[in-house]
Design goal:
Elements (H helix, E strand, L loop, with lengths): L5 H14 L5 H15 L11 H21 L27
């Protein structure tokens, strides 16, 4: 989608996916929830008590949500394919009944 390399290009790609109505709602909500979790003072691993590990869980949540969002890119490979449907170039499974 974006031809701009680097972090700025990735950020623009993510923002475009968040605004694209073809992007599934669950990955978009997961990114929103991960950002809220990141800025929230309530954590699974408290940030002040375990400074390094406390932030790792925050980053992992955001990373997983962004990864899911990017994998569901409608313009990306396999993004527009519904779960269980054959991917482009793949023949559908044979019918059970004639």
């Amino acid at each position: 989608m974006s031809t701009m390399p680097g972090a700025l290009g990735r950020l623009r790609h993510v923002l475009a996916l968040l605004n694209d109505p073809r992007t599934p709602k669950l990955p978009r909500l997961a990114v929103l929830a991960a950002v809220i979790y990141f800025i929230s003072p309530i954590d699974v691993v408290p940030d002040p008590l375990l400074p390094v590990l406390g932030y790792v869980d925050d980053f992992v949540m955001v990373w997983l949500a962004l990864r899911w969002l990017i994998k569901r890119d409608p313009d990306g490979p396999g993004g527009a394919v519904a779960p269980g449907a054959p991917s482009p170039g793949q023949s559908p499974p044979p019918a059970l009944l004639p």
